[in-house]
Amino acid sequence: MLQKDDEFRAIYDNAALVLADGMPIVWLSRLAARRGAALAPLKERVAGSDLFWELGRASAHTGLRIFLLGGMEGAAECASAVLKERHPGAVICGIYCPPHSTFHTDEEQERIQQIIRAASPDVLMVGLGAPKQEKWIARYKDCLLYTSPSPRDVEE
């Protein structure tokens, strides 16, 4: 997909975090390093699903607020239940599975943003499938960033 989709490739080129979600990527990095590539080989596979469980563990210990966006109807609710069962105390502050039929409308996009902002998550986990989720995150991340009010704002 990265070879055929310039927008998708640009998103990955500018991403703060890219995970090696498959062993072939790790193997290719090792092969490239042996052939003199400037980058160090990847040490291991880090699947996005592994990150999900680690964030759940962190949430249970620190109160980190997690919002789950996307998936088939009912999938996020199920994931939330399993996460809370595995990590009691995990804080799922919101879940929303946008309807596929209206996802690309301005009205639905505004609704998604309002729901997420109202939940005030620390972490937004997006499961819309590639490259849809990456493109959605790139488009909306700046308007969803939450910043704590300054002490002066709170006093006023």
Short description:
It contains seven helices and three strands; from the N terminus they run H-H-H-E-H-E-H-E-H-H.
Can you tell me about this structure?
The chain has 156 residues and is mainly α. The protein is built from 7 helices and 3 strands. A 3-stranded parallel beta sheet has the order 2-1-3, sandwiched between helices. Helix 4 (75-86) links the parallel strand 1 and strand 2 (91-96). The radius of gyration is 18 Å and the shape is globular. The termini are far apart. Residues 150-154 have low confidence and may be disordered.
How large, in whole angstroms, is the Cα Rg?
A: 18 Å
Q: State mean pLDDT (0 to 100 scale).
A: 90
What is the topology, as strand order, of the major beta sheet? 2-1-3
Portion in beta strands:
5-15%
Structural descriptors:
156 residues, mainly alpha, 3-stranded parallel sheet, globular, disordered C terminus
